[in-house]
Amino acid sequence: MDSEPHFSIVFNIYGGSNQILPNATSATQNYYGGEAEPEESHENKNEEPVLPPEATRLISYINKVEDLRVYLVQIAECTCAVELARVIVNMAEREPKITPEEMVKERFISLFLPLTPLFVSGKSVSNIRARINNAWDRRPRKRL
Fold first, then answer.
1. Arithmetic mean of pLDDT over the chain
2. What residues make up the domain containing 121?
3. Is residue 86 part of a domain?
4. 134 in helix, strand or coil?
5. Dihedral sign, CA of 66, 70, 73, 78?
6. How confident is the model over 116-138, as pLDDT tens digits?
7. Domain-located, residue 29
8. What is the pLDDT of residue 51?
9. How confident is the model at residue 47 (pLDDT cuts 50, 70, 90)?
10. The whole model's pTM is what?
11. Residue 48 lies in a domain
12. C-alpha torsion sign, points 13, 19, 23, 28
């Protein structure tokens, strides 16, 4: 008889990436996410609020979540395309992933439409694109 106990471990993996290490003597893998949250997180009132789903699409362009939160406040306060264009140009000057070519594309501009509740008119992609181009051309240039 075998004196060592046999353990059976089952991992259910849904999406994400995992590394299999057949020759490793030990490994630690932490899983974050899912629907359930630890109970202690509900007790911490200083915790930052979760980003709205519409805002999470901007994460691929913004390096820091703290910066994204600042931009979201600025975007939500915009009442017209001119104001939104200024915010987008400001973002493009600070975020390397927002290039002059990318910021005028329809797929990029459309990310902002659900985030601008104070717009009353002029919320078309073509109007916002024109205002972005104007703001980009008028921005102060940095001297080398």
1. 80
2. 54-138
3. yes
4. helix
5. negative
6. 999 888 899 999 999 999 999 99
7. no
8. 77
9. low
10. 0.64
11. no
12. negative
